[in-house]
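Section handout 9: paired folding examples.
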Amino acid sequence: MIKSNQRFFNFILVLFDLCVVTASLLFAWYIRFVSPFFDDGVRTMNLRAYIDLLAIIIPLYLVLFLFFGLYKPYRKQRFFKECREIVFANIIGIAILMSALFTMKSIHFSRYMLGIFFITSTVMMILERGSIRKILRMARERGFNIKYIIIVGAGSIGQTFAAKVAGDRQLGYKVTGYVDDYYHKSDKDGIPILGKTREMNEILEEYQVDEVIIALPNTSFKRIDEVIDICEYQGVKTQIIPDYFHLIQGTTAYFDELDGIPLINTRYIPLDQPLNKWIKRAIDIILSILILILVSPIMLVTAILVKVTSPGPIIYKQIRVGMGRREFWIYKFRSMRCDAAIPGEIGWTTENDPRKTKFGAFIRKTSIDELPQFYNVLKGDMSIVGPRPERPHYVTQFQHEIPKYMIKHHVRPGITGWAQVQGWRGDTSIHKRIECDIEYIEKWTLWFDIKVFFMTFKAVFESGY
């Protein structure tokens, strides 16, 4: 089943908004100064001046669209609410723009033209967003862009949530089933009862789901804790519907919502925010392209020397576990003998590992062997900065041994990470590594990424990172 990529979706959405704003301004200029609708003799107002005005309009409108929640996931807001926010954002945007022009005494800009721009941009953006929703609805009706969920609690809270999901297909959710201690395994209003909360671990292993929605009464604190622990053990995100949600509707701090039903996120992850995802992904793509161009001579020489110094393939690929617990192929320059590749699948690489070739030891020490992973970044498997991905064998092992280990799979793995620049790399403490990974995930900022990126160079040159 093909699932949507929220980062890519928001990137496309921003591009569409940029096109709408730009096209609206050009259309307004044409109507005011070229078309026959205004017969006042004003025919030659400089187009360049209005194009230059986009340098103010575009960032202003994007910030307003973000402020009014127009880049939140479509699943959790109705179209009427979105249209209302579009109108408000455009009203405030044109008001700020005209105030700024008045303050700067830029009186040569046409008020008629700016009024046409306001109407056009508002209407075109509503049409744009409505068209996108229509496309998404059609895709979801065909089984694409669906998120599968399990609802823990088949009582009135869980049934209300399930009814919301079933009643609005554009939300893009599908209920796999209920988990409840007071119902036998059967159907509840057409939705299967998968088992009891004590069977939660087995249920999550049997069914591939994206989220677990907890809809238990407040008196079930122990069961809620147990369910959250099991879900984090399995690396599945959880959200809670409090049974007092009718008392706190409208509260936005610390809450998410689905059509008026507040959901408590059990773990705040900054990279769950669409704008943060888009910024990080955009930087990953731009930097990866630039770095691959800059290091292409090094990669070419490395490829030749790998081939000359040891028989076998130039690129070594290995299965790793990435975001959402999905497996992918990671690429490196081969640094070991071919006859050591299979044992290497189940053993840590140590500093004086006898399996490494002489040239392989050099590229491992300088991290040149990691350069092909920028291709993984371009593919979307990895990020430049993030928790290092591990092999499935170790993921299964550490999942049982280390509390909250699977939380690292809530974000894209990285070529470098906070744990690695702190010295926790290779055959070192996995507990310390996970502590650093969780700290990075929970405290992510763009500046945190920049800090780790530049600390990586220091680590490489000082300690052979």
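Moving on to protein 2 of 2.
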Amino acid sequence: MTTTATATAQFMTSEQLLKHWQGHRNLTRRIIETFPEKELFEFSVGGMRPFAKLAVELISIGGPALKGIVERNMEGYSEEGFAPKTKADILERWDKETEVINHYFNQISEERFQETFNLFGQYEFPVFENILYFVDNEIHHRGQGYVYLRALGIEPPFFWERF
């Protein structure tokens, strides 16, 4: 009897995943830029947090989480330590975190994407699922930003223009 090994096609490379994520980050950055300064920090709908606070959450997840994955550190999640006062503060930090994300993402081997990791000591999933969570969370919060901008009478960027 003969056995035949078959190769499984890969759906997406790690480079494609990072490009996809960075496309979402580019669009979220454009949402931040679109907000008037005051409304970025004060405007909300239905008791939701202002978009500046949502941006701080996103800034506090991506880079620190990837660093934790690479260093195998399950330190808890925290938004403490970054209290922006201006839109420029948020955009500057957003850009710095983009570089942090690129730095650490590129240190994750293909094999590690399949390993289970307890992110922030709370979420026990394969590394690739943790990264997809970061993207999903960003899309969710960016959707809130779209609602806010529309409520303010401001046309947001098209959601498909991510690059």
